[in-house]
Structure formats: C-alpha cells, structure tokens
C-alpha cells in the first residue's frame, strides 16, 4: 500500500476543517458540496473491505429521499447487505480524520483487520440522478484506483439494483446475472409467470400509476416495462423531466404528509404508488368515491405478502418457519391481524432497516417492512431449493402452489428493499387473489396514531429496551407513561431518542384520533419534564 501516493491524492480531495460526519444506517448524507473527501475516502475503504472479505464490494452514491442538493454514499457488503457495524466505525473514523491523519487511520484499519494487502480488490460503483452524483462517483473511483483496486462503474442504477449486482457477483451467478438486463429478465420472467395464471374476465389490462419522485426509478422502470407490458400497464408520473427530485412527491412525502404527490391525477379507486428518490421504498394509495385519500403503508404491504405466503405454504402442505419483523412504529392493528387472524408470528426489533433484515434472516421465510415502505422477504437457501424441487415434481394443486411460490421467490430482490420488485410482487398478488386496492385496504383498519418530537438538552438521557418500546431512563418515565396509557382504549405509547439530533420521538396510538392526540401530548409533557426538555413546552394538537 503506497501511503505516500494516497496522501498526495487525498490532498486533491481535501476535507473541510472540523467537519465531522457519522456513518449510519443510510451511510453518509449531507449537502453535496461537503462530500468530495468522503467519496474519495470511501473508495479507499471499499478496497480494504474487498481485500478483507475477498469479495466484490459496492459503493452507491445517493441520498435517497433527501432533497436534490444533498448527496450521500453507502457501502454494500458481499451478500448485498449493509456494511458490517465494525466497518461503519472504520468509515466514521476515516471520514472524520484531518488530512494529516489519513495515513495513520488507514494503517490502523489494516492492522486491526489483519489485511492481506497482496489480495486483489474489486469494487462496483453506481449513482442516482442527482446533478452532483457523477462528479462524486468519480471521486470514489479516484480512491479505489490509488489503492490499486479494480472497479466496474455501472453508472445510473437504483440502490437496490446495486445491492443485487453485488450479491450476484459474490454468489458465482447462482442468484442471477450481474447486469441490468439480468435484473430485468429475472424479475420480469417471474412476474409474467405469475400473471399468466390469472384468468382474465374479458381483456381488461391491469394498470398502476407510479410516482417516481423525479428520481432514478423512472429511468429504470422505463428500461424494464417492455419485459412485462403484457401483464401490467405502468403509467409514470414525476419522471424527472420537469420537477425536482423528492420535491412535493415520492414515498417519504406521501407517507409523512398523508396526501397524494403533486403531478399525479387520481381517479376514484385507481391504484397508485410512490417510490422514493433511489427506489428502495414504496407506498400505495388511492382515493375513494368521496374523494378521501387512503394510504397503504409498509405495514399493510407486509400483511398482504405474508398472508399470501402463508396461504401458499398451507396449500403445499409444508411446515416452514415463517415470521414477520416489525418495529415499534408498526400499527397495532397490523400486529393483531397477523397474530390473531393469520396466525403468523410477529417479532419487533429496534428502528432501522439493518435490524429488521438481520432478524428476518433467522427464519426460513422472513418478511420485513418498515411503515415507510422499505422492506422485502428473505428465503433460506434450503426453502428455496425445496420449493423449486416441488414445483418441478408435483402436477396437482400442490404443484401449482409450489410453482407460484417459486416465482414469488424469484420476484423478490432478497439483497435489499426494492420498490420495483415490491411493486411487481404486490401487483401479482392482487391479480392472483382478485383483490381491488379498496379490498386490500379493508383487511384491517389502522388504529389512529400521532407522532411528536420534543427538544431536549441531551438525547442520551433517554435509554430504552424491548426493541425501543420501554424507557429505562430517566427513572419514573416508563411508569408514568404506563399510567397514561391505561386511561385510553386499545392504547400504547413509547418514546425513543433520535439517532442524529437532540430530540426525543414520541409515538401514541388509541381507538380514536382525539385519544391518540391527547395521549401523545401528555407523553410529550412527561418527556419535557423528566428528560430535560428545552425551548417551548409541548402544545396540544387537538
């Protein structure tokens, strides 16, 4: 490792004095002007990670649902997963090092990880459509090449597509072909196989309206739609030709604002969905006959998928360990429906997709979705092999169910939550079950809820346990929350510190909106009083 050359090249990507950024679940994200040094250094880190794992590593340049002027970067580990936690620490140290300390930090990583520097390194890189992304991905390439790493630049991809490419390259082609065409063909073949089973009354073609957040999703859906156009008509809105990325559109906007995006015309009963900026989240929605907006978020997506998988497994007669993974933010009605009606076990983890993904890997089939629409289903290799064998061997009803499940397995991008893949899964299930979007929405009624934030002097005052559903400190807070919850019907509430700023997030739900609002307000007051609230006291929202 020629540290002298690295230091010379690093000086061309100088770090702004005093800028400290933390590598989190989403990697690094901030205003694009501050990221040149980070990109270069993540190119260096990707080479070291590749040498250590003896695998291809991915680097994705994106800031997902953030505004267009922001950008970011995240590394993708060998099986398409997020970067290992110990390497997140390396990323933070390397990104935060002042210019004169870069050499020392690199040497420390090499020593701690017992790197074999003679090992070859291969890095794949991709980017979203932000104006800053092309120049920033060039800085990543600069970091890769100065350490002698080889690379392939895929150019414009969705984030889940890069995860897919990394997984394919490291599975020796077992998972699929590591090209855009390979991705399109794998998903489309599975989708067409599924929709071919649907007996159409007349010649009505199914259609869905897709808000692409003015991001990469529009580009990639357009490349792909001719593969499956016989089974589904996709009408694209906010395709990047006019509006700004994520501005008044996209999955995050629709979920947080509880209203349709700008730029899309909705008629009563039409199925619509929104991707986020890098196409790894999806939410559905529709307007009813009275013009009321109805959101179908990640909880209902997980319920539709896991219920369908359970039905198929019962038809096949296979006893398989199926589980659904949620966070504390999942609506209580979804948890009750899954556990009590569908008899599907539900598990709760800490907030953050890496926690859900990790827990889902413990099952033969693990389905996970955050309420924001980020999620997928994971299938163990043993289950996948068994189902595909049964699909070939059996000719009866069990064989048909096995073939359906085999196609569903191929349709999921198991490397990461993927809006395109998830949309095709949802469309296939709705078609196979003959469900309208209103019937899907009606499988259970969400409990009214309210989320609030409380500013505090130091968020570390609050610590939690039980997947963030119980507060451990400060003393007395959880007991006081429990007393408040008892006043309301079907109620629950929890508090958790933000991961990035000195605020405490409050969640409350109950059997009416007024009760949920009152409970959230009362819990906010408790947090303000017991956890060092600053600024204005919480005000009622009802």
From TrEMBL:
All residue ranges annotated as the Alpha-D-phosphohexomutase C-terminal domain in the record: 472-523
Keyword Magnesium attributed: yes
Gene designation: Pgm3
Entry's EC annotation: 5.4.2.3
Pathway connected to this protein: Nucleotide-sugar biosynthesis; UDP-N-acetyl-alpha-D-glucosamine biosynthesis; N-acetyl-alpha-D-glucosamine 1-phosphate from alpha-D-glucosamine 6-phosphate (route I): step 2/2
Protein name: Phosphoacetylglucosamine mutase
Single Gene Ontology BP annotation: carbohydrate metabolic process
Catalysed conversion reaction: N-acetyl-alpha-D-glucosamine 1-phosphate = N-acetyl-D-glucosamine 6-phosphate
Record-annotated Alpha-D-phosphohexomutase alpha/beta/alpha domain positions: 52-90, 99-166
Annotated ranges, domain Phosphoacetylglucosamine mutase AMG1: 208-283, 297-434
Binding site residues for substrate: 370-372, 496-500, 505
PROSITE patterns: PGM_PMM (PS00710)
Molecular function terms, GO-annotated: magnesium ion binding; phosphoacetylglucosamine mutase activity
Active site: 64 (phosphoserine intermediate)
Cofactor note: Binds 1 Mg(2+) ion per subunit.
Record SUPFAM superfamilies: Phosphoglucomutase, C-terminal domain, Phosphoglucomutase, first 3 domains
């Amino acid at each position: 490792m020629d540290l002298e050359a690295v230091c010379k090249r690093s000086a061309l990507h100088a770090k702004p004095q005093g800028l400290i950024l933390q590598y989190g679940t989403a990697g690094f994200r901030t205003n694009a002007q501050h990221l040149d040094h980070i990109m270069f250094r993540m190119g260096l880190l990707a080479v070291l990670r590749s040498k250590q794992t003896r695998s291809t590593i991915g680097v994705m340049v994106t800031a997902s649902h953030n505004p267009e002027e922001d950008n970011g970067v995240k590394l993708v580990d060998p099986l398409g997963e997020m970067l290992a936690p110990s390497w997140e620490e390396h990323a933070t140290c390397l990104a935060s090092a002042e210019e004169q300390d870069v050499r020392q930090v690199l040497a420390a990583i090499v020593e701690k990880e017992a790197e074999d520097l003679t090992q070859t390194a291969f890095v794949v890189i991709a980017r979203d459509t932000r104006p800053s992304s092309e120049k920033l991905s060039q800085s990543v390439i600069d970091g890769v090449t100065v350490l002698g790493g080889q690379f392939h630049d895929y150019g414009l991809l969705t984030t889940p597509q890069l995860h897919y490419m990394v997984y394919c390259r490291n599975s020796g082609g077992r998972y699929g072909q590591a090209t855009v065409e390979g991705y399109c063909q794998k998903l489309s073949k599975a989708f067409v196989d599924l929709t071919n089973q649907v007996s159409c009354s007349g010649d009505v073609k199914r259609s869905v309206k897709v808000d692409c957040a003015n991001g990469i999703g529009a580009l990639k859906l357009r490349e792909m739609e001719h593969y499956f156009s016989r089974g589904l008509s996709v009408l694209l809105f906010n395709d990047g030709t006019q509006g700004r990325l994520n501005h008044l559109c996209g999955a995050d906007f629709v979920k947080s604002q509880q209203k349709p995006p700008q730029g899309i015309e909705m008629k009563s009963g039409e199925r619509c969905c929104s991707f986020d900026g890098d196409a790894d989240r999806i939410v559905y929605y529709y307007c009813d006959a009275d013009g009321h907006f109805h959101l179908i978020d990640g909880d209902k997506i997980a319920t539709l998928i896991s219920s369908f998988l359970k039905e198929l497994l019962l038809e096949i007669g296979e006893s398989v360990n199926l589980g659904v993974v949620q966070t504390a933010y999942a609506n209580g009605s979804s948890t009750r429906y899954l556990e009590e009606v569908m008899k599907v076990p539900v598990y709760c983890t800490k907030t953050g997709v890496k926690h859900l993904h990790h827990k889902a890997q413990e099952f033969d089939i693990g389905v996970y979705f955050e309420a924001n629409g980020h999620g997928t289903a994971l299938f163990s290799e043993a289950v996948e092999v068994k189902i595909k064998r049964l699909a070939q061997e059996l000719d009866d009803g069990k064989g048909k169910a096995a073939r359906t499940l085999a196609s569903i397995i191929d349709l999921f991008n198991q490397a990461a939550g993927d809006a395109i893949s998830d949309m095709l899964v949802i469309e296939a299930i709705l078609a196979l079950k003959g469900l309208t979007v209103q019937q899907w929405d009606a499988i259970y009624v969400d409990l009214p809820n309210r989320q609030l934030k409380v500013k505090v002097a130091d968020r570390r005052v609050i610590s939690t346990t039980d997947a963030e559903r119980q507060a451990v400190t400060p003393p007395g807070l959880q007991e006081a929350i429990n007393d408040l919850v008892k006043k309301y019907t079907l109620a629950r509430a929890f508090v958790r510190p933000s991961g990035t700023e000195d605020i405490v997030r409050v969640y409350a739900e109950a059997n009416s909106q007024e009760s949920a609002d009152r409970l959230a307000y009362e819990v906010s007051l408790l947090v303000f009083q017991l956890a060092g609230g600053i600024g204005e006291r919480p005000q009622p929202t009802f």
